[in-house]
Predict the 3D structure of the following.
Amino acid sequence: MEYRKLGSTGTSVSALCFGTWRFGKRTGDVLETDREEAHALLDAAAERGINFLDTANVYGDPDGTSETWIGEWLEDRDREDYVLASKVYFPFDGQGEAGPNDSGLGRKHIRAQIEGTLDRLGTDYLDLYYIHRFDEATPIAETLSTLDVLVRKGKVNHLGASTMAAWQLTKALWESDVHDWERFEVTQPMFHAAGEGVADYLDLCADQGLAVCPYSPLAGGFLTGKYERADPDDPTQVEAPDGSRGSFDDVFGDYYASERGWRVLDAVRETADEEDATPAQVALRWLMDREECTCVPIVGARTVEQLDENAGAADVSLDDGQHGRITDARAEDGER
C-alpha cells in the first residue's frame, strides 16, 4: 500500500480510504453489512495496509451503528495506527424525536455530536472531522469558530468539508484566514471518471493545498464494468446483474450512466485489458494519480473479495497515454 500526506497536513494516510457507510445500513428489508461482516472488512482493510477509515454519525440503522462497530473493532487494536474521519450535520435519530437544534452546523449541535461520536468510537479525538453539508441557515463564522475550539481542545486534529460548491468552500477558507481559525484541509466531493467535471473545485483545492477524498469513485459500481448498455439510443438504460445496485436502484441509470460515462467505461476497459487489471482498479488509479492535488478515493465494499480488488489499485501503474485516453473520453464534453 502507498501512503501520502493528507493535503498540507503532517498526517500520512493510505492511498485509499475505506468507507463504512454500508455498516448497519438497511436497503428495504436487506441489511447491507452486519456487524460480523463489518469487522471482517475492517480486518481485511488493515491487513492490506489501509489505515484511513471514513464514517459519519448518521451511518447505520439506527444512526451511530457504523461508529459503534468501528469502536468495538478498535478495542483490540492500537488507536494510533489509524486515521479516523467522521462527520456532522444531519439530524441524529438515536436520541428520539429530533428537536429544533438537533441538526445543522450550529454550535449547540456540533458540540453535542462530537461527544457522541467520540464515545461510540471509543477514542479521545478524531483525526478528521467533516461538515457533512454546508449549512446555509447558520453563519459560517459560528460553525468555523466552534470547530476551531474542538481542534484547540485536542478533540479534533484536522477539519474537512464534504459536498459543497466551490464558492462555499472559498467563503469558508477566507473566513478561517481572516480570523486565524483552523481551516478545512480536506474535501469530500462526489468525483469519478465517468461523471461531470469538477474542474473549478479541483483547481481551488490545488491552489489551497487541500486533499480531495472523492466518494462514489466507481460511480456506484458503474465503473466496475459489470453493467452493459441496454439501449443504443438511451444511455441511462443499463443491463444490470442480479443483486447489483443497478438491479434495484430505480435511479441508477439516470444518476451514473450517460454518453460520457459509456465512453469513459470503454476507455477504462481498454486500459484494464492492457494492464491485466480490472476496470475498478483502473478507475481508482486514475483518481489516485491526479497531479493537481492529493487524491485519496473512498472505497466501499460488501465483501472481502471486493475490498481486495479495490486495494489492488495500489499495484496498478498507468502511463501518460492511458491516463490521457480516459481523460480524453471525458473531454469530449468539455470535462477534465
